[in-house]
Amino acid sequence: MAALRIDRPGLFSSLQDMGRFGYQRFGISASGAMDTLALQAANLLVGNPRGRAAVELTMLGLSAVVEEGPVRFALAGADMTLRINDCPAESWQSHALSPGDRLDIGAARTGMRAYLAIAGGFDVPPTLGSLSTHSRSAIGGLEGRALRTGDLLPLNGVPAGPLLMLADAHRPRAHGPIRVVLGPQDDFFTPAGIATFLGSEYRVTDKADRMGAQLDGPAIEHAAGFNIVSDGIMNGSIQVPGNGRPLVLLADRQSTGGYPKIATVIGPDLWRLGQARPGDTLRFAAISPDEAQAAAEAQERLIAGLPAAMSEPPPPGAELSSERLLAHNLIGGVCSALDPLPL
Length: 343
Known about the structure:
Helix content is 14%, strand content 29%. It is of the alpha+beta class. The strands form 4 sheets. Strands 1, 2, 3, 4, 5, 6, 7, 8 and 9 form a 9-stranded antiparallel beta sheet that branches. An 8-stranded mixed beta sheet has the order 19-12-13-16-15-18-11-20.
């Protein structure tokens, strides 16, 4: 059976899919990928159903050797260095590996998390219907924990179909403030507090992980205290505890909480929290529930259209062919030597 032997596990590498749903009423976290856009793109590049489990890499990738094969993989998400048998390789593109081949994924140059998808997925039994790892409760994934040196990840299936790449123009990009819908307890805040939240810049602190991201910035003024009867927590719920600084709950969040929630990050923008690094700054903008629904539908159309935007990568050496060079603007930025230099 094909398998990946983990020689270097990275900082926190774990199996994640779209999450474990239907159990929050029992206190079980949904968990799941922090950047579901990148997860789905990586899966589509290797011909998988888009929600299949992949290895989520955090800040630093892993090193692995193919024990048996063949194996096809793709890496998408944060910009991490990628090498195959010590040769540079491209992310957002599927690659073929043979038994004995070595895969090295380095540190993230931008972004926080990348996803290593394998054609056919991982031959690991699901827990409560999902392979997502929730390390705090030790369920899902591989023994409910992050990967370790020496782990052997068994793989399903045999690669089929062509290798694929996703052009840069179709990859996710962050634009503007993170969109939120106010509530459900925005009445626990003064108008000035809500204005502070929507008008300020907040910095991601080093207390940011899969459970949530504590933000630093201007304090948000409460109107009616900061304790409520505990109620359900959604992915993207923004609590404001007594210190007035927002706390965004994410994939590994607890199922209930007792601080008032000023707003909820809309689903289409959650991936941006998953890619935010400590020190990054964020701003928030309120939209209506109807606008949030429209954004979710637009993102679904974008993801559904990704397969049509994927193409076979050029063969080795084709990057410098006349046809390929003529297809690009090679003189952009050139100006006349007779024109005055721009100031």
